[in-house]
Amino acid sequence: MMLAGFFFLFLVSGGSTSNISEQTALQDDQPNFNPDNDEGVTNHNSNCSDRAVYNHLNLVKNNDNSKIRPSRSRSVTLVKLDVLLYAILDVNEKEQQFVSYIWVFSRWYDYDINWNPQNFCDIWKIYPPSDVLWTPDLTIEEMIEDNKVPKSPYLLLDYDGEVFLRSNMVVVSSCSMEVYKFPFDVQNCKLSFKSVVHSSQDLMLQNSADHKWNIAWSLERMTQSEWLFVNLSSSEEFVDSFGLQQTLLVYTITMKRRSALYIANFLLPIMFFLGLDLASFGISDSGGEKLGFKVTVLLAVTVMQLILNDILPASSDRIPLIAIYCIGVFGLMMLSLLETILMMYLLGKDAAAKENREDEEQRRNLKKRTSADESPSEQLSVAKEGDSSKPTVESIALENISDELRDVEKTLTRVLNGRKEGNKPGYWTKVAEKVNTVFIVFYVLGVIVFLIVLFLLWNKEDEV
Cα(136)–Cα(139) distance, rounded to whole angstroms? Predict the structure, then answer.
């Protein structure tokens, strides 16, 4: 029976085995899926790769394609990144710059480079120089200065073709600072990784590590200074760069400012200056001490504003709350200074009017006394003596004594009149006292309303 069956198949096939061989060849030409490849890359003909094109065009020397992007059948090269923050070196709000020290770990597969460890005494990995293999052309969009840390001289290459590269970088990047709540602000600075020339169809970036582990590692090794590291997150985006669609891997570094030093050296002193200005209402307005004191306090607040101007950026979208705080305190002190000037003007006007009245009264009294003291006999003797051409020494001495007595009398009259009228302030003095009382009440209310407005602005920003 078996012999008859074989004979039957031989007759059906026409006495030839060519169909069987053709089916086997077609199966060999079909792509084989590699289950060990996490990229899901299929193994096609070796001519369907970038390295085959370079060899065909003789763009490589001595058939050395190791520096060409590894790919199979026009596949995407998947590069997995892991970024660790080692230190926050500087945050410059004035220049809108963020300086950090980071470690960048990248890994990818090159399936054209592999070996069997059992054939090489169980050598599972090697460390070739970084310039002998292809490395991804990664850049950071926000970087404004070149990395000054030397490039790592070696790579890590596993037996299965997986390549590891570690890069240490001092990144000086631009960062849009939000200083509305300075010095209680929280900043978010981004580091966006992308390829320089490769599109997303050739090179794909992907985050590989757990964010919680990255944050714990950074907090353990980082020295916390003015800025406290809060969080490190990542996101993947696709951007259109000059008509070329690329993968963008964005790492966002969140940090919070330590505000205790700014509270002690800036916010509290300005509040103390405001309290001194309020206490200066107890100083008498009759002299110039109150005016000089208020001007000194106002200049101190001006110096604090100049210091603040050196810290905050000039290109801020909104006026920071601390600037509103300084402007409000400066405005209240300016109104207090103007009120003091008005008070001194009113008191000076009243004092001038009182002095004019006293001088006029003294002149009238002096005329009355002079006319009363002159008797007829004295007038006759003066008329007789008027014939003499030269005054005597006694007459000159008497005139001097009489002038001195008049001055003493004038001084005593002013003192006595001041004591009598001490409890009777003038009209402008009464007006000045009323104005001062009303202004103090409105000044205190203005301070309270100003602080409430600042508090409401703060809470409104938190809700937004």
Answer: 9
Q: CA 255, CA 354: separation in Å to the nearest integer? A: 67
Q: Which two tokens stand for residue 236?
A: 């993947």
- The CA angle 398-403-405, to the nearest 5 degrees, is 95
CA distance linking residue 136 with residue 187, whole number of Å: 30
Alpha helices in 149-250 (DSSP H): 211-221
Rg (CA), the chain: 48
Distance of CA 371 to the CA centre of its chain: 84
Partnered with residue 125 across adjacent β-strands are 158
- Mean pLDDT for 326-343 is 92
CA distances from 283 to 27, 184, 280 (A): 105, 37, 5
Distance CA 65, CA 133 (A): 9
- What DSSP character marks residue 118? G
What CA–CA distance (Å, rounded) separates 349 from 341?
Answer: 12
DSSP state of 132: S
Contact between 197 and 137 under an 8 Å Cβ cutoff? The reply is yes
For residues 389-406, one letter each, b for 16 or more C-beta atoms within 10 angstroms of the residue's C-beta and e for the rest, the string is: eeeeeeeeeeeeeeeeee
Which pairs with CB-CB distance under 8 Å and at least 24 residues apart come from 144-149? 144/97, 144/172, 144/173, 144/174, 145/172, 147/171
CA 455 to chain centre: 21
**408: its two tokens:** 């003493």
The H-assigned helical ranges of 281-392 are: 289-311, 321-373, 376-385
Per-residue model confidence as pLDDT tens digits over 288-328: 788 889 999 999 999 998 988 888 877 667 888 999 999 99
Query: How many CA atoms within 13 Å lie on the side-chain side of 271?
Result: 11
- Helices 427-463 and 268-279: crossing angle, nearest 10°? 160
pTM over 0.85: no
The mean per-residue pLDDT over the stretch 201-206 comes to 88
Provide the b/e sequence for 31-43 (b: ≥16 CB within 10 Å).
eeeeeebeeebee
| Distance in angstroms (rounded) separating the CA atoms of residues 414 and 419 | 9
**Mind listing the pLDDT tens digit for each residue in 160-174?**
999 999 999 999 999
> Helix 393-420 and helix 321-373: axis angle, to 10°?
130
Do residues 128 and 153 make contact, with C-beta atoms less than 8 angstroms apart? no
For 303-342, b where at least 16 C-beta lie within 10 A, e where not — what string? ebeeebeebbeeebeeebbbbbbbebbbebbeebbebbee
Instruction: Judge whether 220 and 86 are in contact, CB under 8 Å.
Output: no
Asked whether the beta carbons of 294 and 330 are under 8 A apart, the reply is no
